[in-house]
Amino acid sequence: xxSQEPTLVMQARGLVKRYGHVTALDGADFDLRAGEILAVIGxxxxxxxxxxxxxxxxxxxxxxxxxxxxRPVHFRSPSDARHAGIExxxxxxxxxxxxxxxENLFLGRELKRPGFFGRFLGLLDKPRMLADSVQYMSDLKIxxxxxxxxxxxxxxxxxxxxxxxxxxxxxxxxxxMDEPTAALGVKEGNMVLELIRRVRDKGLPVxxxxxxxxxxxxxxxxxxxxxxxxxxAVVNPKNIGMSETxxxxxxxxxxxxxxxxxxxx
Length: 265
Known about the structure:
Helix 6 (156-170) runs parallel beside helix 7 (186-201). The protein has two domains: 5-92 and 156-262, Rossmann fold; 99-149, no CATH class. It is 32% helix and 24% strand. The protein is built from nine helices and ten strands. By secondary structure, it is α/β, with parallel strands linked by helices.
C-alpha cells in the first residue's frame, strides 16, 4: 500500500467525458491531499473545467472513478457533492444581493426553531443563524460591520468573502474555488488569497482553479497542470519557475522534460 494513500482526501482515476466528437476529459487523474491548497491550471480546452465539474457533481463522467476518503462516490448533481461535504465557490457568485449576509450564509440551509414552532410551523431560528454567521465570519477574520446588512452593500472582495465563509462553514471534506479573484482588484484579490489560506489552516483542503499565475504561485502547495483532457504533471511551485510551468501547460515543454526535483511527490 502506498504510504501517501491515507493522506488523500479525494482522488479521480481515468475520468472520461465526451460531447459528440469532442473529448473534454481523456482519462484524467486527480489527487487532493489533506491540508493542502492544490491549484489546477490549464489552457482553454485543457479539460480543467470539466474535471472540476465532475468533482463537484455538475457533470457526470462517461467513465472513470472518483473516490472520497478512499471510498468510491457517484455524484449525479451538485447537491450530491454538497451532501458528501464538498462545497464549491463559483466565479459568478451565487449570492442573493438583496438578502442579508446572515441570510446568504444559510441560503438553502436555513435553521428551524426548536420544538413545535420549527417542526410544525416552519419558523426560522433567526437569532441562532445570526450568531452562527458572526462566528463563521470571525473564524476567517472577515471584518464586516453587521451580519444584517444586504450583500449588495458590500464590495466585490467582501461578497467573495461571504461565499468563501459559507463554503468553509458547511464543507466537511473539500472546498473548490473557481477563479475566486478573477473580477477583483489587487487589494481585494490579496484579501481573498488570505481567506483561502485560512480555510486550509482550518483543516480543509482547497482546490483552486485560476488563470492568475502569480496568485497560484503565492498560495498553492502543489500545482496540477491539465492538458489535452489529462493530468500532464503535478509540480512543486517552490522548485519550478512560472515560465516553465506555463511551458508545460501550453505544450512548449514536455512533461517528461520537467526536472525530477520540480515534480510534486
